[in-house]
Amino acid sequence: MSERKTRLTVTIDPHLAAYAERLVDAGKAESVSAVVNGALADRAEKDRRITRRWEETVAAATDEDRAKAARMLARIEEHTGR
Amino acid sequence: MSEDSGAALPPYVLDVSVLAEVARGDRGTMLLLAELDSRGRPLILPALAVTGASLDMRDDAAGELLEGVGRLEGAFTAPLRDAEQAVALAAVIAKTGLDPWDAHAAAVADASVCHILTLNGTKWRQHARDLDEPLYFIEIADPDDEDR
Known about the structure:
The complex is a heterodimer. Chain A is mainly α. Chain A has helices spanning 14-25, 32-59, 63-80. Chain A has one domain (14-80). The longest helix of chain B has 14 residues, at 83-96. In chain B, helix 1 packs across helix 3, helix 3 (47-56) packs antiparallel against helix 6 and helix 5 crosses helix 6 (100-112). Chain B has a single domain, classed as 3-Layer(aba) Sandwich (Rossmann fold). The mean pLDDT of chain B is 91. The A-B interface holds A 47, 49-51, 53-54, 57-58, 60-62, 64-69, 71-73, 75-76, 79-80, 82 and B 3, 25, 27-32, 34-36, 61, 64-65, 67-68, 71, 115, 117, 138-142.
C-alpha cells in the first residue's frame, strides 16, 4: 500500500501493548504502529478468506441443495405459520 | 422475499446438529441460513454449540464455514460472558444431562425465549421439559433424514 497512513488513536490491552513493544525492541517489527497495521491486515485477509469460502460453497449449490433448503424452510413456516 | 412486518423477528438458536452440517459444507443448510438471514431473522450461535460442531469436523475449511455463519448480517455468537453464566450453564447441564454444547443452546433459548433450530428433534423432545420453562424447538430435518 503506497497511500498515506491514517493517524488513529486506539486503546489496547496493556499486555498486547507490551508485546508490540517487545517485538519492536527485538527488531521483529519497525514500530508499534507496524505491529497494529499488520494485525489488522491479517484480520482483513482472514475475513476475506471466510467470506470467499462461504460464497464459493453456496455458489456451488445444486438444484437438490436448493430443494433441501426449501423443504427445511417449509418446515419452519409450517411451525411458525409464516 | 421478506418477512418484514414492522416488528423485529425473534431469533432462532442454532444447535450443534445444524452447525455440524455447516461445518461439513452442507449447502442446503447453508442456503437455509442465508435465506433466513436475508429475511431479517436473527440467528444466535451459542459459542459452545460452535465448539461441538467444530469437534465434529476438524479442518480449516470447516472452521471457516462456521465462522462464516457468524458473519451473516443478523447472526451473533452468544458467549459464556462471565462466571454467573458459566455457573448457570452448569445448572442446565445438571438438570438436563445434556452435553455442554446442547446445554448452552438450551440455556440461550431459555434465557431469550426463542426457538432452537435442530436436525435432531428426538433429543429436544426428550429434554423440552427438563427446565422450569419449556424449551421450544423446530425440527428442520427431512423425515427420512432425522435423528442423526
